[in-house]
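Title: Prediction job returns without error message
Component: structure pipeline
Severity: low
Priority: P3
Assignee: unassigned

Description:
Job completed but the reporter wants confirmation the result is attached to the right record. Sequence as submitted:
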Amino acid sequence: MVKIEVISYNKKFSEDFYTLNKLWIEESWSLEDSDKEDLLNPEKIIKKGGQIFFAVSNNKAVGTVAMIFNSKNKFELAKMTVKSHFRGKGIANILMDKCIQFATEKKAKEIFLISNDSLKIARNLYDKYGFIEVDLDSKKYERGNVKMVLKLTP
């Protein structure tokens, strides 16, 4: 079993935030302007009230996810990825748990995400955690064709 520690944003992993996400996005699509805005300015996410988490193994980032502040009661879960040879080891679950804990501590009522219906493994994760598909009302990502929401109870 791989030992994983989840840590909050650390500048030493900021390049990994960009690189890990660029790799998974470019498996099927191209980086969009909205991706670059988030990935090249991770500290902006933090300054606006969000957080970036890293799954770290042997002092190397093997996964990451962002919680982007949207409004007083909502966060966008975005930029979740795990390095390819670490996939299938439960790391996405660990990251998801941390995101839900973070949003709950911030007294958010909702976490939403924009995804693509071709991402079957990601969809299984979202379904497992109780995210519900809703009408897509965002054009943040051209590749995004699904919006899902997780309602949090106080």
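Comment from assignee: result matches the submitted record. The chain has a mean pLDDT of 94.
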